[in-house]
Amino acid sequence: MIPYTVNIKLAARTLTGTLNLQNKTAVDWGWQGLIAQGCHSSILIIDPKTAQTIQVLERHKANVVKVKWSRENYYHNLSSPYCLRLASGDASGKIVVWDVVSGTAHCEIQEHSKPIQDLEWLWNQDASRDLLLAVHPPNYIVLWNGDTGTKLWKKSYAENILSFSFDPFDPSNMALLTSEGIVFITDFSHSKPPGSAGKKVYIASPHASPAHTKPAPAAAPAPTGAKKALNKVKVLITNEKPTAEAVTLNDCLQLSYLPSKRNHMLLLYPREILILDLELSQTVGVVAIERSGVPFIQVIPCAQRDALYCLHENGCITLRVCRSTAAPEEAADPEQSVQELVYDLRSQCDAIRVTKTVRPYRMVICPVNENSAALMVSDGRVMLWELKAYTGRAAANPSSGLSPLYSPVSFCGAPLGPNQKRIQDLSLNSMIGQTLIAGETPPQSSNQQEVQLKFLLTGLLSGLPLPPFALRMCPPLTTKNINHYQPLLAVGTSNGSVLVYNLTSGLLHKELSVHSCEVRGIEWVSLTSFLSFATSAPNNMGLVRNELQHVDLPTGRCFAFRGERGNDEPPIEMIKVSHLKQYLVVVFRDKPLELWDIRTGTLLREMAKNFPTVTALEWSPSHNLKSLKKKQMAAREAMARQTVSDAEQSSVESSVISLLQDAESKSETSQAISAREHFVFTDTDGQVYHITVEGNTVKDGARIPPDGSMGSIACIAWKGDTLVLGDVDGNLNFWDLKARLSRGIPTHRGWVKKIRFAPGKGNQKLLVMYTDGAEVWDTKEVQMVSSMRIGRNVNYRILDIDWCTSDKVVLASDDGCIRVLEMAMKSASYRMDEQDLTDPVWCPYLLLPRAALTLKAFLLLQPWSGTFTMDITQVDYNEKVEIKGLIQEQLNSLSNDMKSVLQDPELSLLQRCLLVSRLFGDESDLNFWTVASHYLQSFAQARQLIVSTAEGQAQNEGTQPSPQNHLDICHDVLCESSYFQKFQLDRVHLQEVKRSSYEHTKKCADQLLLLGQTDRAVQLLLETSADNSSYYCDSLKACLVTTITSSGPSQSTIKLVATNMIANGKLAEGVQLLCLIDKAADACRYLQTYGEWNRAAWLAKVRLNPAESSDVLKRWAEHLCSPQVNQKSKAILVLLSLGCFYKVGEMLHSMRHFDRAALFIEACLKYGVMEANDSSNILLEDPLLCSLRAAFLDYARLLRSLGLREGAALWASRAGSAGEQLMEELFQGEGVTPEAIPAEEEVEPNKKSTE
Q: What are the WDR11 first beta-propeller domain coordinates in residue numbering (predicted)?
């Protein structure tokens, strides 16, 4: 016999259903590009691009309440590779850190037994990426090492902590949302717990704070509803607990820092979002909902643009973008232009139908591109929305008053080439331009396109409906059906529909609405059709409506199998189909059974009234089909022989014979041979009856008296020579029919609900279902193979069971999931690489670490070939075929747009680096290349300007590129000074409008003095009322500020006073005085001496000239590089913004970031901001060149270790004399063998040393 190979390897998997309320907050979208979602005690990993579940993690015993992907903001190499790491916390206080690809746990952490409130990976220092901060109720925050599970420190607070948020600009700041208010912590560090208890802040309610509503000017019209809400602005009260009626403590749903600008925070209430400026502790913006509007559930602030994604209670997601504060020319009233930050509604998606059981839970947005959102619905659905930008003006709607949004004219951080391909919807910052601020000139609208934003539903995952379920696997795989076999599982649901799943992919194959009430059971009658029955709720007589439907899968046709019967009769208990799928027995509760012929759909026999009540029934696997076929063949041969011998017989007879033959052949095609089949059943006394069915005759056979040790028989299973009976007391009775032996075994597990033999010849495994779990038995040895029990190793109840292959079982459980498990019935996650996915998934993290790095190098640069290829086989790459294949699969799964952009010859090196870091979701790469590409271009332009002015630029004025856009404000102090100053002035102006108390006014005046706005500051100082204790002080200060002259003696006095103040601990006041006499550089130095590094950088940006400012920032960069701070990556960004490109190249190389260093130096040379003269006439002493070459050489070695030889050769050839040696090693022995195999082997030991 030919050995068949067929892919019927079903992966162990979990089909999930509705969510538990505790899963509400358990969802996260990682930089890795995948969504993790808790569903009961399992965690689904979803690929949002193809809307497939690619992994289900099972280890928690309780409901999962939080999941968090680790951050990707570190440099990736072989020792710290791209890997999928996820932390999850459950309702019993356990935290598991997962390796998602293999589905195994790195470590498990348990501190208390209450649900975890919040989880976050620390991302702030370069030393360790394994630190995990968790809130353990009621009031502890604990820092764990997420790799080893050791506790680093623990700190308790006075109030119950609900959640926390880190300041994205300064990792030592965090805010805790507690049951009473907010606690600000300013000394967070991973090395020791925060020292202080933090600064407690209470939130005054908007409804009852008359003290803070500003009196409206008399002439102003009465404010409308929305405006009223804006007047009653919430204020943070720091000193004392507010009075009870003034405060509604727990209606704050969420707090988060804004990642788009420093020192701003949002607070979410059901009907409004408050934007706070933390320097003032004062609201500077409100997004309020009209009275008829739908309340908020959640809001996610974006980093790339000042925008908010809001989720409403009807499942609608809205995008609000901050309005430009640049006053439009036609605005008549300048006062009105800057009242507060306004977030305009720019786009919204469709709502869902909310019912008692269906409501939106959470949304997550893609952290890399911020232009797609996923909505989790309580019924297990995941809706994937993408934001699309459409060019073209909106229909004229002047009343809306929205200023148009423009799309940026650049792609991946560089201006577009004339015929360059681009992806408009790559990310949020490539879709809409920056929000303008006051004092900025709006760009010429000639070269900008106006865009509209729309949400598009691009994917939908739906889960199983609510339990209970009835399961039945289709007939097993045999040698005859191997070519067209599909492993289909039919699932009957409580609403009457039958779902058919294909278990190879785990996807829904068909959903058929068959019944009008709960499906009780399903039996397959062929590989493509099944019978299912459902019973309605009983009436007062105890009678029901029975529905028995025959369904044909390919066509979806379904008809009532019992015709008109079924109304007002006792309920059907079970249906059983015979082995040859010829006959069907329908057993009723208080009515004799019916016997049907499936092939013709006719009722063969309805048993008499005195027929015994059936408690269990099973068809025998033995039948006489083979002997019948033999007889038939013999008869046919005899007939043929006869026709030949009596050829000369009359034509009449021959026609009769041909008719007979026709009938015979027809009967064979329609299989109208009725083979004899038997079934056995037991009655209430335990007596076993044996009945034979052949054609339409039914014979009663032998009866076997009851076994005294057994109770009432609940179920029977029969395979080969083994018959097994199970009873209501948990006894199993094994009968060996050949040896005529019986053996009873008490399992002590209570009622035996179901028993099923495994498919496959000679496979005598038996699956037994009890009320509290299931067991697998080996009936040959009569011993238990495996067992699962609720409360012992699982926390769900089993509703139904079946075999899906000869060694895998499928279980339906009351947590709404259906699990395919190994025979050992241990719920396990599967390896992701063993899966058969219908759509290929782009996720380099699924590759082996080395392969992922190879893929990245392959996408970054292919300078050895004239064109850019997306086919790895065209590259000289020595690697196993399987790994090559996996890399190629990843390349193939990229979208066509992405492929065409990557292959576009116009795409510059910087754009390519940015694009690839986006594709990989590599946070640290993305930050580095964004800043690098911006400053490389702006310094190159500045250089060009200097050169062109030197040459007299009259002729090339037209070719001069327009000055670059500024860096987004989310990069804070990395922005250009001019833009940074404008932004800070804008902000102070807003604070001034919003101030509502003396404290606020004082803070504003201080800021204005530092910014050099003395006139405005004096006005504010003179506002102090006479009964204020600091009235005298402020008045004198105002006089001082106005009378400061630049005469020498007054300057030196003030300087002396300032230094004394600083020495006596009045740092802020001293710095202010120094700023008054334009000694801001000294002020920065003092600030740095006292450890106020961020403040010093801020001051340098807003007050100093470029040279002085650069000195201050360089000192800061040195401080960041020091071992106790260890934030070299941040230092590199600071140096980039200063244009210290040589230093950056050296630092990258010394940090062993070889690929980044080499590509960066290459880009610098391209843009002409670094000079490397021709290699021939260079003195080797030049240290700079040596470091450049060393970087190139190390990158070449890295590429060689990854197996990319052509790349290695290219970089080695540029690394001078040292590179020549590597070239020799690379191509050594080329003359001997084309494959250079010996050379590879000689390289091997070297490989390790270069890593």
A: 22-318
User: Where is 228: in which H helix or E strand?
Assistant: helix 225-231
How many angstroms separate the CA atoms of 733 and 865, rounded?
74
Tens of pLDDT, residue by residue over 1010-1055, are: 888 888 888 888 888 888 888 888 888 888 888 876 667 778 888 8
Q: At what angle do helices 849-860 and 1183-1202 cross, to 10 degrees?
A: 120
DSSP code per residue over 855-918: HHHHHH--TTSSS--S-GGGS-B---HHHHHHHHHHHHTS-HHHHHHHT-TT--HHHHHHHHHH
- Torsion-angle region of 782 (φ positive above 0: left; ψ -120 to 50: alpha; else: beta): left
What residues have CB less than 8 Å from 892, skipping those under 6 apart? 840, 870
∠ CA 663-667-673, rounded to 5°: 130
C-alpha distances in Å from residue 200, one per residue of 119, 169, 180, 185, 536: 22, 21, 9, 9, 60
Cα distances from 1024 to residues 770, 989, 1004, in angstroms, run: 80, 18, 13
**If you compute the radius of gyration of the chain from its CA atoms, what whole number of angstroms results?**
38
The answer to whether 78 and 849 are in contact (CB under 8 A) is yes
- Neighbouring C-alpha atoms within 13 Å toward the C-beta of 767: 24
> For residue range 661-689, what is the model confidence (pLDDT) as tens digits?
555 554 444 445 788 899 999 999 889 99
The closest alpha carbon to 23, from 373, 352, 379, belongs to 379
pTM of the model: 0.85
Please tell me what DSSP assigns to residue 1212: H
Q: How far apart are CA 523 and CA 535, in angstroms?
A: 15
Of 791, 782, 795, the C-alpha closest to 749 is 791
3-state secondary structure string, 147-203? Answer: CCCCEEEEEECCCCEEEEEECCCCCCCEEEEECCCEEEECCCCCCCCCCCCCEEEEE
How many residues appear in the chain?
A: 1251
Q: Is the Cβ–Cβ distance between 1159 and 913 less than 8 Å?
A: yes
At 836, list the tokens.
């058969």
Map residue 632 onto helix, strand or coil.
Answer: helix
Residue 266 phi, psi dihedral angles, 5° rounding: -115, 145
Cα atoms in the 13 Å half-sphere on the side-chain side of 507: 14
Cis peptide before 138 (omega within 30 of 0): yes
- How far, in Å, CA of 329 to CA of 747, rounded? 87
* Per-residue pLDDT at 1: 36
CB 513 within 8 A of CB 496: yes
